[in-house]
Every structure is written in C-alpha cells, then in structure tokens.
Design goal:
About 25% of the residues lie in helices and about 20% in strands. It has 12 helices and 22 strands. Strands 1, 2, 3, 9, 10, 11, 12 and 22 form an 8-stranded mixed sheet that branches. Strands 6-15-16-17-14-20 form a 6-stranded antiparallel sheet. Strands 5-4-19-18 form a 4-stranded mixed sheet, covered by helices on one side. The protein is an alpha/beta fold. It has a single domain, classed as FAD/NAD(P)-binding domain (3-Layer(bba) Sandwich). The longest helix is centred in the last third of the chain and has 21 residues, at about 545-565. Strand 11 (about 270-280) and strand 12 (about 285-295) form a beta hairpin. Helix 1 (about 15-30) packs parallel to helix 8, helix 1 packs parallel to helix 12 (about 545-565) and helix 6 packs across helix 12 (about 545-565). InterPro entries: FAD/NAD-bd_sf (IPR036188), GMC_OxRdtase_N (IPR000172), GMC_OxRtase_C (IPR007867). Keywords: FAD, Flavoprotein, Oxidoreductase. Belongs to the GMC oxidoreductase family. It comes from Paenibacillus soyae.
C-alpha cells in the first residue's frame, strides 16, 4: 500500500538545470515546491582535490548504474533491440544537479534559423529541399521571443564570451569577458580569418573572472585545471545547478529536495495530473506525492519514458506518423573533425577548461548556401582546449603501428605536438527515428526500458564529410605537417563515445496534432503538466543544447506562474 503525503503546490521530477531553475523561480514567487531526484545529494566539497581520471572518465563515477536501468537500441525496426550494457555513445548522468554537474560548460545560443527551420528552408529552397521522411518542424517560438530567457540564463550562470558575428541579435553582452586565448586558439583565429571566416571565443560556463549573479550568488574564476567533462568543479567556477539555482531555492525555505526518489508514474484523472508515485530506493517504500502542478525535468529518455508509462499524451506510431510522445528523436553528428600533427611547434594541451575554445559558425545553420548540397543545416566548428588528460589522449598519425616501438616513439613525439579541430553537426528528425517502450527488457522495478530506433542517414553522411573537409582546410592553413580527417561516415554504432546531446520525444510546437507541448513547455493533453528539457527539440541544432534548455526552463517557470494564476492552456 502506497503512503500518501500532503499535497504541495508543485512537484518537480529531476533536479538538474531545468528543475533547479524552475524551483528557484517558483519558490522566489512564494510557491511550495518538492523536488524528486533519484540520485544522491551533491555539494562542491565532494570534489575537493579529486582529479581522478580513472574514477570519473573511465569508470563513470557520476553516471547511472546500467545494471539497474539502461536503454535498448536498434538501428531499424527489422531487428531486435538489445540493452546498452556498458557506456559508449552517450553518458547518462545521475545525482543532484544531473548532467549540469559534469558537463563541459559550452553554452551556445541556437541560431534564429533553428527555431523556424521548416518554414525558412521551404521559403529559401522550396519544399522539395526537405527529403521524404524527414520530419523537421518549426518550434512554435522564434529566436527573438526566446532571447530574453537566454539573457536571463547567461546572467544567472555568468557566461563568459564574446558576440557571435553570425548569431542572433543580443539584448546585452555576455556578463563576463571571454576566457584566455591560448597560442593554438590564436593560430586558429589567424587561419580562419585568412580563409575569410568569422572566429569568436566560445561561450563558457567556466568563469573568466570572479562573478556575482543577480541572485547574489558569488563564484570564483576558472583555474584552467582541465577537469570539467565528467567531473564536478572543485572551485565552483563551472556553473552548475548545485552552486547556482538550487541554493537560491533552498534559501527561500519553500523547496524540499528528496534524493534517492525514483518517480515511476505521473498520476492523472480527467485530463489533469494529481501528483506522482515514486519509490524511495533506500527503503523500497512506494510513496504518492499529490501536487497541483507536475513539472517533468529529467533527462530526455526519462521524460519520454515516464510519459509513456503514465499513459499521458498519444504515443508515436512510426507506421502512420501519428502520435507525438516518442516522435522526432534526434542525436548529433560529432564525426566531422581533423587532427593535425606538428613537427616544430609544441603546445601545452594539459591545461584547459571544458569551454575553453574558439569557434566559427560560417558552416552552421543556413549561414551558407545549400542549393547544391545534399544536406540541410550544418554545424559549429571549433578548436577546444579542454585538457588533454593522459589516459584518454594518445594521438599518433594514421599509418602508425597500433603497438610496439614505433607506436611508443610517435606517442612521445606527438604528445605535445597535436591539435584537433572538431565539428558538431546538427541532426534532423526522420519518421523512422523514434523512442518507445521496449517490449522485452525491464528495469530493476519491472518497468520497461526506453528503446531507441536510430541510424545515420545520407543527410548525416553528407554533412559529416563536408564539415570534416572544412576542418581539414583550417588545420592545413594552421601549418600542420600531417592532417587526418574523416573521409566517410559509417553506420551509427552505440559503443564509441560521441555526444550526450540526445533530443526529441516530447517536442514543442504550435499545435497539438504535431507536438506534445506548447512554447511554455505545457502539455496539450494535461494543462497542469510541464515537460522541460532537450526532449522538446523538434530536431537538433549544430550546438550544445544546455543554453537553450536553460532558456526554455526560465520561460516554463514564467508559464507555470501564469497558469497558477489563471489556469488553462497558455498562449
């Protein structure tokens, strides 16, 4: 028999960036909020002097236990999906703060084109430019409408950067200056300018200087230690929910965090949510938390899975193309890159930060003519210096033996003579790429696992090859004596790490027939349920998603307060 607790104003499922932002905004406005987090408590002190690559990078200390819950994967509907038993293509975070604790901090804004991709593509190239089966959508919101929320997120996090010359208009400059420009970044800047491109310093959640945000949260500047990705920041210099928004919510006295609380169902009746049912994983006790408003802010797969298990919203059917929950799954094409080997120049690649880098957007979005190209969109190209930690970084030129004396000799020679330029390509939604519940495999509680059906398309292969060639051109202009770059993109495989930028499944739009939520992240089918995160992206852009997730969270918080006051679907 489940234990029923007293009702609260709002219950939040997952306390990461989106959940923390919404908790902060709602509690400051006087609402009582319960945050349910299935992982453990976290604090900055947990990471004092813990630069342990083996523990965090290789053994995935901050990721969820795949023996208790994982996903299943198949490349198409004709084969059986199998569970992901060890980490590879992407990493599933766990614990208070979510992926916002162990992210790199690269905080781009999406381009105006990203939010109106279908209509703007059709307007410029005609409807035949969009291939059959590609299900890209407009978001139901424009860049200009979302810009104030980007600004709010950047001020809260103290984003360090400089204006993107090819980006959307900004209402304010970044709150802190860009990070240091290293010698390799200066080389990239000079080379790209010679190629008539437009470099700019990467926007970083790693503080370039000491900063106090509008909520009064003070944080110290980045030390360039090179331990950002897969690590918590011991200095608090990298913006994360644990050192920014969660303390603000806690200070109000109206926010209650319950860790080790695994939400299994959203309870609903008559088109309204009544609360959630969760398991206290420390005791096994089943608990019901009633609430006036339910806000789902966990990771992409968890958002979709919870809605499907709760029978909220119409499940997507790939055969007919009808339904919305699980539709428009998209990933990211991180396969267009170039590695340059230098004979004379040496670099200090061990120092770095998660978002220490320099970028160009000349080949992103629709910033270049696609008339004679067999793909849409593009991607950001960047030279990043995230810290070349010793276990995972051992580059040698192609053609080198994989072991033995030659390998050892060249490993030592090129340890400080190698640079990499990476491209982060967009991912378009297709009718046959989707998320649903696996009919065979279950988690530790007996609930079905999330199943992914996905593979790279001709769109991705053409895009990856194009971006890799551009990266190679820049690297050669920088003076590398040998350049290796992608020549051909093979099938998607889930065993090699690429990106944790999974998107879609609960997509945003202007009408319920083709989307699950409106532009306040409010469900069409249950107006007191808000679903926030990258699950709302109708397709993925050529950037990291976190800045856009943060902006959407601030807009959702505004929508929740409006709903609390007036009720009904928001417009």
């Amino acid at each position: 028999m489940a234990k029923t607790l007293p009702k609260t104003d709002v219950v939040i499922v997952g306390v990461g960036w989106a959940g923390g932002i919404i908790a902060s905004e709602l509690t400051k406005s006087g609402l009582n909020v319960v945050g349910l987090e299935r992982g453990k408590e976290r604090k900055t002190e947990d990471y004092y002097m813990v630069h342990d690559e083996l523990r965090y990078s290789m053994r995935y200390e901050m990721m969820q236990d795949l023996s208790k819950e994982t996903i299943t994967f198949r490349s198409n509907e004709n084969i059986r999906a199998l569970p992901m038993r060890q980490y590879g293509s992407f990493l599933l975070g766990d614990g208070l703060g979510g992926s916002g604790v162990h992210w790199n901090g690269q905080t781009y804004r999406f381009l105006p084109y990203d939010f109106q991709m279908r209509s703007m593509t059709t307007e410029r190239y005609g409807k035949n430019k969009i291939p059959e089966g590609m299900t890209i959508r407009d978001w139901g919101i424009t860049y200009d409408e979302l810009e104030p929320y980007y600004d709010k997120f950047e001020k809260m996090a103290g984003i360090s950067g400089e204006e993107n010359p090819l980006g959307g208009k900004r209402s304010n400059p970044y709150p802190t200056p860009p990070m240091k420009k290293t010698p390799s970044m200066q080389m990239f800047a000079e080379a790209t300018k010679k190629l008539n491109l437009n470099p700019y310093m990467m926007p970083a959640a790693n503080l370039s200087e000491n900063y106090t945000n509008p909520d009064g949260v003070a944080r110290a500047a980045c030390q360039y230690c090179g331990y950002c990705e897969r690590y918590g920041c011991e200095y608090g210099a990298k913006a994360d929910p644990v050192v920014t928004v969660i303390p603000v919510a806690n200070k109000t006295g109206k926010f209650q965090i319950r860790t080790h609380s695994n939400v299994r169902r959203i309870l609903h009746k008559g088109g309204k949510a009544t609360g959630v049912m969760y398991i206290d994983v420390t005791t096994g006790e089943e608990i019901i938390q009633p609430a006036d408003i339910v806000v789902v802010t966990s990771y992409v797969f968890n958002n979709v899975r919870l809605l499907l298990m709760s029978e909220l919203g119409k499940p997507y059917d790939p055969a007919s193309g009808q339904g919305v929950i699980g539709a428009n799954y998209a990933y990211q094409v991180i396969k267009g890159s170039a590695v340059g080997f230098f004979e004379e120049k040496q670099f200090n690649n061990f120092a770095g930060a998660g978002s220490l880098g320099i970028s160009i957007d000349d080949y992103n979005g629709d910033n270049f003519d696609h008339s004679n190209l067999n793909f849409l969109h593009g991607g950001v190209i960047a030279l990043s210096q995230t810290g070349a930690r010793p276990i995972q970084n051992n580059p040698v030129p192609s053609g080198t033996a994989a072991w033995g004396a030659e390998f050892k000799k060249k490993s030592l020679h090129y340890a400080n003579r190698t640079l990499s330029i990476g491209a982060q390509g967009s991912s378009m939604a297709f009718k046959h790429h989707f998320l649903d519940l696996d009919p065979t495999y279950k988690d530790a509680f007996g609930d079905p696992l999330m199943r992914i059906t996905f593979d790279f398309e001709d769109q991705d292969r053409e895009l990856a090859k194009f971006l890799a060639e551009r990266c190679s051109e820049i690297m050669k202009e920088m003076g590398a004596s040998h350049v290796d770059y992608l020549k051909e993109l093979g099938p998607y495989e889930i065993m090699t790490y690429q990106s944790t930028h999974n998107t879609g499944g609960v997509i945003m739009g202007a009408e319920p027939g083709t989307s699950a939520i409106n532009n306040f992240s409010q469900m069409w089918d249950a107006d007191n349920v808000f679903v926030v995160g990258a699950s709302s992206f109708p397709q993925n852009a050529g950037y990291n998603p976190t800045g856009t997730v943060g902006a959407l969270a601030y807009r959702a918080a505004e929508g929740i307060l409006k709903y609390r006051e007036k009720g009904g679907l928001l417009v």
